[in-house]
Specification:
With about 375 residues, the protein is α/β, with parallel strands linked by helices. The chain contains 15 helices and 13 strands. It has two domains: about 190 residues, Rossmann fold (3-Layer(aba) Sandwich), CATH 3.40.50; about 170 residues, Rossmann fold (3-Layer(aba) Sandwich). The mean pLDDT is about 95.
């Protein structure tokens, strides 16, 4: 038996893409269908099938493409398959194959129901007048098509609750794969001379914030945590929120250092050298906290969201419940008391090597390697 893997669109970086990588390795004969592919060298030639949207300017304008995605996913031009496995954070779970394959079993691995449709307060893309007007009809269609899935898996209990609330469906929690082995076993030998120089210029003890520099990641709270505790801060990454973050840093001369676009090897060293890693955003799951724990570093995270499930309060880090300086300082004081060994042990529970077996068990008898 062979099937089809469906994914929204393929980017060069992203946690959802790591899930699809694992799906692709687990089911090597399954073609991958997507709206468009912005990482053409990621998979073997001919394996990825882009939609008609890939040949239009809409591939660069996701918001404008949404109405067309609804119809495009209903006419996936693959006629022979025994199942379809959807990696969905927008409409990929709407996928319907053609001809004889139209009614094959559908399995949905949900990163989340689309936040800017269902919970726009968590995603600014849903706050515009047009988005709000379209949300009602989109919710009706989205909930209806979610009923087609034979089974649904969620990346966290937090998302399982959202799935029940939005789609009126039960789901199985299967945490996404994390390269724990890669972060746990690094020895610094992969660092370039420039990266070694970057590390040498950083303070001996620091609070780390690392992610894409976008507002909802709340890297400003990593700064606030360091300031509350009187510790230097290192922010690693890049993105459109960089000017705002640098402006905040400028108000505290010498307190904040920036490391732009670190490699995995450099990021691993930053994790390992940090007093604590601050992950303040409300996330569906959160891969980076697990990466940090795999280096033995405690994590400070929001008490709401998927990361609060992986980071154990007072065991592998600390949960904060407000943005007050006193609360952030309390969280850091608690986090630094935990055991590095406990952090590493917790991280290994999410190692990517475990993920394929969990997916196979979840899909069950409806799928074989055939």
């Amino acid at each position: 038996m062979t099937g089809v893997i469906a994914h929204e669109w393929i980017e060069r970086l992203g946690g959802a893409e790591k899930v699809v990588d694992s799906f692709a390795a687990t089911y090597p004969d399954a073609p991958i269908v997507c709206a468009w592919n912005d990482a053409p060298d990621r998979y073997a030639p001919g394996r990825v099938h882009e939609s008609v949207l890939a040949r239009t300017s809409l591939r660069r304008h996701k918001a404008l493409a949404i109405p067309f995605m609804l119809e495009t996913w209903r006419h996936v031009p693959i006629r022979q398959a025994d199942w379809v496995l959807c990696s969905s954070h927008l409409f990929a779970h709407h996928a319907r194959l053609s001809g004889p394959a139209r009614d094959v079993p559908k399995f949905v691995y949900a990163h989340t129901p689309a936040r800017y449709i269902w919970e726009p307060e968590l995603d600014g893309r849903g706050n515009g007048a047009l988005a709000r007007a379209a949300a009602g009809p989109l919710r009706t269609i989205d909930r209806s098509r979610a009923q087609e899935a034979l089974k649904i898996a969620a990346v966290s209990r937090f998302i399982a609750q959202r799935i029940e609330r939005c789609w009126d469906r039960e789901s199985t929690v299967i945490h996404p794969p994390v390269d724990v082995a890669g972060f746990d076993r690094g020895d610094g030998s992969e660092l370039t001379d420039a990266e070694l120089a970057t590390l040498a210029d950083l303070p001996a003890d620091f609070v780390l914030g690392a992610s894409r520099f976008v507002p909802y990641k709340r890297l400003d709270l990593a700064i606030s945590t360091g300031l509350a505790a009187g510790l230097p801060i290192v922010l690693a990454g890049d993105g459109p929120d960089a000017p705002r973050l640098r402006a905040i840093a400028a108000e505290h001369p010498g307190a904040v250092s920036f490391v732009s676009r670190p490699s995995n090897a450099l990021l691993r060293e930053l994790y390992g050298r940090a007093v604590a890693y601050v992950f303040a955003s409300v996330e569906d799951f959160g891969i980076m906290p697990v990466e940090a724990m795999s280096t033995g570093t405690p994590v400070i995270t929001n008490s709401i969201g998927g990361a609060s499930e992986t980071v154990l309060d007072a065991v592998t880090g600390a949960h904060f419940r407000s943005e007050d300086a006193s609360e952030l300082r309390r969280a850091l004081e608690l986090a630094v008391t935990v055991s590095p060994e406990a952090c590493r042990a917790r991280a290994w529970e999410f190692d990517g090597a475990l993920f394929p077996g969990r997916i196979r068990d979840w899909m069950g008898q409806a799928v074989s390697d055939g």
